[in-house]
Amino acid sequence: MATRKLKAAGAALVAACLTAGPAAADLVFPDLSYRTGPYAANGIPFSDGYQDYLTLLNERDGGIGGVPINILECETGYNTEKGVECYEATKGEGALIYQPLSTGITYQLIPKATADGIPVHSMGYGRTSAKNGEVFRWIFNYPANYWDGASHAINHILAQNDGDISGKKIALVYHNSAYGKEPIRTLEELAAKHGYELLLLPVDHPGQEQKSQWLQIRRERPDNVIMWGWGVMNQVAIQEAVNIRYPMENFIGIWWSGSENDVLPAGDGADGYKALTFHNLGMDYPIYDDLKQYVVDAGKAAGAGDQLGTALYSRGMYAAMLAAEAARTAQEIHGTPDITPAMMRDGMEALEITEEKMAALGLPNFGPTFKVTCGNHGGDGLGAMAQWDAAAGTWSLISDYGPADEEVLNPLIEADSMAYAEENGITPGCE
Amino acid sequence: MLYREAGDFKTSYREDGQSFPIRFDRIAVQVTLAVALLVVPFVINDYWANAVALPFLIYAIAAIGLNILVGFCGQVSLGTGGFMAVGAYATYKLMTAFPEVSIIVHVLLAGGITAGVGVLFGLPSLRIKGFYLAVATLAAQFFLVWLFNRVPWFYNYSASGQISAPERTVLGQAVTGPNAEAWVTYLFCLLFLIFAAVVARNLTRGTMGRSWMGIRDMDIAAEIIGVNPLSAKLSAFAVSSFFIGIAGALFFAVYLGAVEVGEAFGINKSFLVLFMIIIGGLGRIAGSLMGAAFLVLLPVLLKNVLVGGLGWPTDLAAHLEFMIVGGLIVTFLVAEPHGLAQLWRVGKEKLRLWPFPH
User: Fold this and answer.
1) What is the pTM of this model?
2) Level-2 CATH architecture, domain A146-279+384-405
3) N or C end of chain B, less CB within 10 A?
4) Would you call B258 and A416 a contact, using CB atoms and an 8 Å cutoff?
5) Is B51 within 8 Å of A84 when comparing Cβ atoms?
6) Domain segments of chain B: what residues?
7) What number is the ipTM of this complex?
């Protein structure tokens, strides 16, 4: 009896594994999302924005270039093992592009996707030196990367202090992972250039326990605190900063530490908290009329449909928009609506985002214009500073889009990408 | 009718002492091995290898290792994740320092290094037992993860703090790195699992295994009849850590290719492997395999059924998965506290009498 049961269970298991996922169709955009676990508060709005934009294209325009889009959502829980499983499960379905929204998973996918010939777009995260497209042929990180972000934060502090920050003390509170460690090198180089003192305070996954870090901040009294946090770590850090009465206007988060979900738990105390961004925020864009008409009111919104217009929803939408525009560009280059991942890569490499394009899409002035080339997979790296207004409950830009310190960053990117090329036997070049 | 001992006569000590004394068992194992070695490599694809086969094989090796310590020697350990990290970082350092040496040697050496570390952290077991020892091994878990995060030498000073496996070949076939074929990685891990299972099985029924079990069942009595607790406990820690180190090395080099210690080898790994042996059956080699299969395959199966088959939202499926797996664990432990291996044994007892139970 027992063996028969086991055999039946085994057969059911084999059958279920064989029927994994729906059949391949049209333009496949996998969405490696996370709606569970300690990072869900940030994963949900991004994924909702990503899916809603693609759903809008399907409902309003019938897809991209007349070919419908197939979204394959796969839950990673911000976990690399599950991320790999999601990648393997979806790549066979004809996936055109991966946007895993996790630096850890991006590091996993860089060699795998390069070997399989599927482009990865790590927008504002992932490996910074992927900006060098001659080494990382399949990896893109336009329009801005972490080292740009670190430089923007320092530029902002410089501007506040009339260009002189020598002798100042700046603390970096970071997620103790590949993600959080990414800016350290840049901040150290910039410290050598500008003469500030850098204080490194790692916070371990998932980031709920930060008492000792903030006690140290209270003792050392840094002039500024920069944060590289994600998920529950953001909320805890902002609450802890409020608890020690750290001046919020001196507290700067990277763009991943600047969503509504991060500041709302701290209430009025979070007023004045700053975060970087590489695109505009808010709902004053014509696209929201279409989104409402075709997606939300039609009951097709992803998730609970309550994240519209939040910072990370906007970013997810922006990521989907860039992917869709790259697909459109690829269709134009190759003259066929049915594109392959290799064609998609060409489209991404030839992507040009202009003001007219954004206006035509219903997102006028939504972000800076940029152009991707083979040598530069990272765009221009422009960034702006946003500030939280707790009373109004909104983020608003308090600076223009400014450039990063290319003079410091470019040699770092060159060195890091060349080290990768040497380790992996890659001959840099565009062909 | 099929499964019986009657008529299966042994005429030599060698035959009497074989691993699977019942002919039906022997044939079943041989057929399984033949399929796993000769058929599966030809049909396996990337998805099956990376989502199902590799995690199962690697966790099975780790579970065999932990089972030796917890199941056979009775020393509770929560340091599995940390010891796997030792295996992973040892392989990484060896791979990058001696690129010309075969990856097989590196994996075995990594196991050896982990065995040394395991013995070091096993020393407290000579003075403390039970929950107190669990806490001491928990300290090993946190200390090792902290160490690999803290000291840049372990990750070759890379900017991200990650380690990534360069490409290494065995007999001209890439085993690690992105260009490794699914069947090569599968076979590589399978051979290590077979090695681990054979070694563990034979150790546990020899002198060493008997002294471990003596210590487990009653340490004072074991000491009185001449078992040296020092050598028994430390050898259990060494052998256990050796296998766990191999599992960590394969986990990093072959399965994931790049890891970050805090995420890949956190406390969750320790619990996961501990659950595997508890569900599978403490003190049973087959139990380790069954427990690993249960905890690796069930989530994948549930995900494919709920999301792929029924089209439910991914977050709902992920939450249901927690509940179903958790519920099944509780049910199993209430219905059969000795694990899946005991279920299998009861099943075999019934099979012997079938179809005439009276």
Assistant:
1) 0.90
2) 3-Layer(aba) Sandwich (3.40)
3) C
4) no
5) yes
6) 44-266
7) 0.87
